[in-house]
Design a protein that fits this description.
The protein has 8 helices and 12 strands. It has about 325 residues and is α+β, with helices and mostly antiparallel strands. The chain folds into 2 domains: about 5-110, Gcn5-related N-acetyltransferase (GNAT) (Aminopeptidase); about 145-300, 3-Layer(aba) Sandwich (Aminopeptidase). The chain has a 12-stranded mixed sheet with strand order 1-2-3-4-5-12-6-11-10-9-8-7, sandwiched between helices. Helix 1 crosses helix 2 (about 35-45). The longest helix has 15 residues, at about 95-110. It starts with a strand and ends in a 6-residue tail after the last strand.
C-alpha cells in the first residue's frame, strides 16, 4: 500500500480531526485539539512558513502527519523544524519516510540549513532518525499525574500578606503583565535553539488566543499587585489537562509561589472533571522536575531533540 503526502485541508473539519487522531495515537502526552490546530495554521506568522502535512492511504485514511516550518525568531538564519507522527496501528507503510522526505524538500527550498526534530527515546524511533542523518542533542521528559486518584496538596488556609491568587481571565482587558511574566520566565528555559523573545502581538496570537489555553485554570500569583508566578494550563475540553508553563520571576523565587499556583490550578482542574494531567520538562531542569515529583507526577516518556546539519544532508 502506498501513501500520498498532501497539506492539511484547513476548511475540512474532518481532516483536522484525522490529524488530531494521529497525534493523540502517536504522542498521547500532548494536548491537541482540532480548534487548536486550526488556530495554529491561521495565526502562524508568515516568516514561520508553517505547514501541516498529512500522509494518506489510497482509500483516504490519514495515517501520519508532520508539522514543518522555520525557527523564524532564531538569530541564526536557516534553522528549521519538522515533527512527524505516524499512527502506531499503521506503521510500516512508509508514511514516516514519505513525510520526512517531503518536509526536508520543502524546508530546503525555503532556505533551511539545519533541521531539528523531537524523537521519542525508543530504539525504533531513534534508529529511524539516525539512519536519515539526524544526530541527538538534548532531551525532555513527559510526565503524567492521575488526577482521579490520590490526594493533591492542600492550599494554605490563609495566603501570606500581600499574596493573591487570580485566574488569567482576570487579565482579559490587559494581558500584557502576563506576557511580560511569560517572557521573563521563558528566558531561563533551557534549550539548544537560540531564539529572540516573542513580541507582544506574536504572543497574543500564539499563546493568549490559543484555543486550548484555559484562562480559568491558568492561575497567577500576585505579590503586592505584581505578577510573581503563574501556572499556564491547556485542556482538551474533555478529560486531559496540561501544564504549558509554570514559573516564578527571579525576584520572587524561593517562596513556594510556583507550587502555590500549580496546586490551585490542579485542584480546580480535578474539580472541573479533568482526570489526567500532563507536563513536560527538560531532563536537565532539576528544580522543575523536583516540583513535579512533589506533586506526584511520574515520567511516562522521553523525547530527544535531533538535529540534521548541512554536512549530514544527502
Amino acid at each position: 500500500m502506498t501513501v500520498k503526502i498532501r497539506d492539511l485541508r484547513p476548511d475540512d473539519p474532518r481532516d483536522a480531526e484525522s490529524v488530531v487522531r494521529v497525534r493523540r495515537a502517536a504522542l498521547p502526552f500532548m494536548i491537541t485539539t482540532s480548534a487548536g490546530l486550526a488556530h495554529q495554521l491561521a495565526a502562524s506568522p508568515p516568516d514561520r512558513r508553517y505547514r501541516v502535512l498529512t500522509a494518506e492511504t489510497e482509500d483516504g485514511l490519514v495515517v501520519g502527519t508532520a508539522e514543518v516550518g522555520l525557527v523564524y525568531r532564531s538569530p541564526e538564519p536557516g534553522r528549521s523544524f519538522v515533527n512527524a507522527y505516524v499512527d502506531p496501528a499503521h506503521r510500516g507503510l512508509g508514511a514516516g519516510t514519505a513525510l520526512l522526505r517531503a518536509a526536508e524538500e520543502y524546508l530546503a527550498a525555503e532556505g533551511a540549513v539545519e533541521t531539528y526534530a523531537w524523537v521519542l527515546d525508543e530504539p525504533a524511533h531513534r534508529s529511524f532518525a539516525e539512519r536519515r542523518g539526524y544526530r541527538p542533542s538534548r532531551s525532555a521528559h513527559f510526565l503524567r499525574l492521575d488526577l482521579a486518584a490520590g490526594p493533591l496538596p492542600e492550599l494554605p488556609a490563609v495566603l501570606p500578606a500581600g499574596v493573591e491568587l487570580r485566574p488569567a481571565s482576570a487579565f482579559a482587558a490587559d494581558p500584557r503583565p502576563l506576557f511580560e511574566a511569560d517572557a521573563a520566565v521563558s528566558a531561563d528555559e533551557p534549550g539548544d535553539v537560540p531564539e529572540v523573545p516573542a513580541g507582544y502581538e506574536d504572543w497574543l496570537g500564539s499563546v493568549w488566543n490559543e484555543p486550548t489555553l484555559d484562562r480559568e485554570l491558568t492561575r497567577v500569583v500576585l505579590v503586592d499587585g505584581v505578577v510573581a508566578a503563574f501556572c499556564a494550563a491547556r485542556t482538551d475540553g474533555a478529560s486531559r489537562y496540561g501544564s504549558a508553563m509554570t514559573g516564578t520571576l527571579r525576584a520572587f523565587r524561593g517562596r513556594g509561589l510556583a507550587k502555590l499556583a500549580k496546586t490551585d490550578s490542579l485542584r480546580r482542574a480535578r474539580a472541573a472533571g479533568y482526570t489526567e494531567a500532563f507536563t513536560g520538562n527538560d531532563t536537565g531542569n532539576e528544580p522543575m522536575l523536583a516540583v513535579n515529583k512533589w506533586f506526584g507526577y511520574e515520567i511516562c516518556a522521553t523525547e530527544t531533540r535531533y538535529a540534521k546539519k548541512p554536512e549530514s544532508r544527502p
